[in-house]
Each structure stands twice: as structure tokens, then as C-alpha cells.
Amino acid sequence: MDQNKIILSEKDMPQAWYNILPDLPAPFPPHLHPGTMKPLGPADLAPLFPMELIKQEVSMERFIPIPDDIQRIYKLWRPSPLHRAYRLEKALGTPARIYYKNESVSPAGSHKPNTAVAQAYYNKKEGVTRLATETGAGQWGSALAFACNLFGLKCTVYMVKVSYEQKPYRKIMMQTWGAEVHPSPTTLTNSGKAALQKDPNCPGSLGLAISEAVEDAATHDDTKYSLGSVLNHVLMHQTIVGLEVEKQLKIAKEKPDIMIGCVGGGSNFGGFMMPFVREKMKGRNIRFIAVEPTSCPSLTKGPYIYDYGDVAKLAPIAKMYTLGHGFIPPAIHAGGLRYHGDAPILCLLVNKKLIEAVAYDQKPVFEAALMFARTEGIIPAPETAHAIKAVIDEALKCKASNEAKCIVFNFSGHGHFDLAAYDAYLSGKLEDFPLPEEKIKEALKDVPKVD
């Protein structure tokens, strides 16, 4: 019989995270202080993060051991299964072999707890009692609420207003785990008040929600800030995904030809593919494809420059592909892909031509999501559906060329809390929002001048 799932035992779970910094093809551009424009030091980050995470952010150790307490919690759902998508292959009539890493099996329904649990653990060790964060579609907020509950920490979540209204059950999920959830922009912070004064109907953005969460953490001694993507330590925690995939593909006697993931800030795709970058740099022909929406096309249309990580210019400045920190994206349902920039590590790899980037409109993405749901059975999150669209396109190219390539993608989360988006698509109400060039030019006017 065909093997539909490759499942590792708990004893085979990776014991350390992979840190790509020592293996990058070029020096990593340092983060800059938003006030001085000079490289950040540990003291600059101390108001926001516990010292252990600051050390991980700049560490040049290739592997960082995963503490036992974190591993014990990971084992609630890890190792996650690697599925062979036989039914999707058959529906497409492709000779390609399609695999997907199913991160939707976590308690929060996505890959996000891989770093949420780690961040909550290190904050608890340092005596922090509350974490403040932002969330787009709610996957990250749900994961941090889950993790804070396990470690007895309070959790405050600033959820992008349009997603707060589109996805009420994500809010309830966070509240079930004890989190306090606010639609961003709020009147609780100066950042939120400024945005509402400028536009009382502001739908919010991840950049703006980050400003609120950073301001909250910086103005309360008992509180630290927690970020679900973009920064180095976050992507490193997610490499447990790719390290498991390495072991599972060996069991399947496969080597990936193409690896695909959706990209908002970059955590799921980065954690999934970074362990394989070493092979590509040694000469193996692996294509890495990052998928984003046409309404927020930072990798495909943004310049590679230094920019602020948030609207209010409170977060560190990072070198990345960006649409401008003041960019407010259209209200698409893939709320986790609405960030103005991307993880600096991924941006460097894109700049060095190790990663390709593509962008899709909403409608073809949901068409791909339905095909996956009706063949493989799992309803994907709108973010994940972007990766599925690219997988289908690549599989059809294999059909046309009669090439039996191995395509592997990260199924970053299920769409059980995103059914309003499916309702909009099925009822013909879903709209595409390709971003006009003039909007990008306008948003880039206020980026910092850094040599």
C-alpha cells in the first residue's frame, strides 16, 4: 500500500534548532537603532526581549540546544507528519511527487507555537510576568496565548482590526487561553491614537499593531514584547520544521527539487527551508519559492533597503525588501501575509538569488485552496493556500514537461477559523487587490536614509 504519512517517533524529534547565520552567503546586515541609526547592541534590545533571546538573535553557533522544558511541550504535537498528496497528484494528472509538512496539527492550528513556546519559556525564566504582541489573522496571537497559558504569563494581543472583525473565533480562541485581545489601532497607545486621528476608520496593519505592542512593552516594567516572525531567533525556532522534514524525506528516499511556502514575515517558510540551504550552497539544484499576495508584494516589488519594522518607528530598523513602514495593505483575508517587509535573513537569500519569489491574487489562491480541500481533505488557511497555488502551478509545469520532480511545501495552518473568507469566495464576493505602483512609491517616501 502507498504510505500516506511519514511519522517520526518522539525520540527522533530534533534536539537543537539550526541557526543559519554562520552559513549565510554574505555577512548579515545588522539591525539598527530607530533613534540613532547605529547598530543595535544588547542593551538596546533589553527593554523588549529577555537576554537569552537577544543572544540567540546574534549567535554564530550553528546549533542551539532546545531546553528539556520546551521539548516536553513540543511533544504535545511534534513531530508533525509529512504527507504525500496522492489525491492532489491524481487530480492534477502530474508525474510530480507532492509532499506537505502538516503544521496544522498543533493546538493553535499552525506552525506558530514552535516559537511561541520558546519565547514564553525564556521570558518566564527571566521573571517576566506579561507579554505584549501583535497578530494579523490571529495565528500568532493564538499561539502566544496558548504558550503564555502554559507558563502562567499574562498575554496582551493587538489584533489587526480588519482581521479582528473578519475572524471573531480567533479572538475567542485567544481569550479561551486567557489572553486580552484588542482590535488595532486602539486608543490604549499613542501609536494607535495617532493612527485613528489620521483615519478614524483605519483597518489596521501588522506594522501598526507592532507599534502598539512595542509601545506597551516599553512602557511597562513587567512586560516584554514577543514577535511571531521576521527576527532571526524566531526563524531559528521554526527550523525544527525543516529538520524534521530532512529526516522524513530520508525515510521516503526522496530529495526535494522544489520547496515552497507562503511568506508574510517569513517564519514558516524560513524554518521549513533554511536547513536545506546548506545543500543548495554545496551545489544541489533545489528551488526555494516564496509566495506572497499581489496586494502586499514586498519581495516581488519592494526595494532591498533599510526600513523601520513598524509604523511608529519604535521597532528596530532592518535591511529587507519593503513597501514602506507606513504601508496599509488592502483588507485581504490572508491577514498573516499583510506585513510591509520580510525577515532580513530571507531577504538576504532572495537578494543572493537563492530564493525565488512569486505573487498571486486572492481568487486563484482560493481556487487552489478548494482543490486541495476537495482532494486532500484539509481546509487550508488563506495564507497556506498561497503556497498551494504555487505547488499546483509547479506540478502542472511538471505535467507539461513530463518531469517527475519532488515538490515539498509547508502546510503552515488550517483554515477552520477562516470560513468567512471561503464564504466570500464561494458567494462570488471575494475581490482581488493588485497593488498599484503609485501606492508603493507613496509608501516608500518616508523610509530612513541609511548608507
Automatic annotation (TrEMBL):
Family: Belongs to the TrpB family.
Lineage: Bacteria, Candidatus Desantisiibacteriota
Coiled-coil parts of chain: none
Keyword terms of this UniProt record: Amino-acid biosynthesis, Aromatic amino acid biosynthesis, Lyase, Pyridoxal phosphate, Tryptophan biosynthesis
Reaction catalysed by this enzyme: (1S,2R)-1-C-(indol-3-yl)glycerol 3-phosphate + L-serine = D-glyceraldehyde 3-phosphate + L-tryptophan + H2O
E.C. number(s) listed in UniProt: 4.2.1.20
Protein name: Tryptophan synthase beta chain
Top-level EC class: lyase
Domain of life: Bacteria
PROSITE patterns, alphabetized: TRP_SYNTHASE_BETA (PS00168)
Family annotation (HAMAP family): Trp_synth_beta (MF_00133)
